[in-house]
Amino acid sequence: MNLFSKKNLCPICGSLNSWLLPLKIEDEYICGTCQNKIDIAADKEIYLTMQGLREYIEFYDRNQLLREQFIISERFDFDHWDTKIIFDYRHKMFCMSKKPDKTVFYGKQLKSFTIKEDSIPLFEGSVAGIKRYVSTVPERAKLFAPYIIHFLMKKHQTRATLKSDDDKENQMTTIKCFDVPGPFQTFNVELHFDHPYCTVIKCDIDAPKFSSDNPDLNDYIRSYQCSIERIEKMVVAFKTVAFPSAPEQFISLSQ
After folding, report:
1. pLDDT by residue (tens digit) across 168-189?
2. Integer Cα distance of 137 and 135 in angstroms
């Protein structure tokens, strides 16, 4: 028997198929090399036909030229695999990765973006303009002051009653952590494209959190401001590559 029969070869590139979880399209197995080139949404991937995959591989190879000329001007890493973005200001391109190893987008292919604090808008951007909404998070964070004070008082009282060495050894289980959620949980980023293989990308960025051991309102607000500064820079980066002439506007949610 010929172990290297046509049945074992990738119908796209002709390479020998791996036996480890190969992708199957129209009853044919795709090799790992071709499979790794696919950078489209999972719900679109399941509908790929063999002809559609061949057309995508052609797109991938053309996009490779953009990856090769990509010059990283700005990098944003929000500690999540789907929230790493690099920008090339010279060529007005960006890529959703820490290096240009995924699909590279021209800025002009970005139709719009939104950034929200949970469901509350913070930024909206398109060729029509960049809108920044005045956040209520700092004011809402101040409402947590009574909970913080109560927790710290209870913690102090509990420690004051721990007199024996055995008590001191058990104080970590006796004193509960501060587990009150903050004013919001995530910055929700949503990008909309005019692109043959990508219409929308969504990613989350964790919101600041109160310390579980020693919550401090000022520390939370400082952490929030640091997050906002990074997001503001990211908005400027999107504006630079996608909407350089877009006007900017501050909007109060009460408007």
Report:
1. 555 555 567 888 889 999 999 9
2. 6
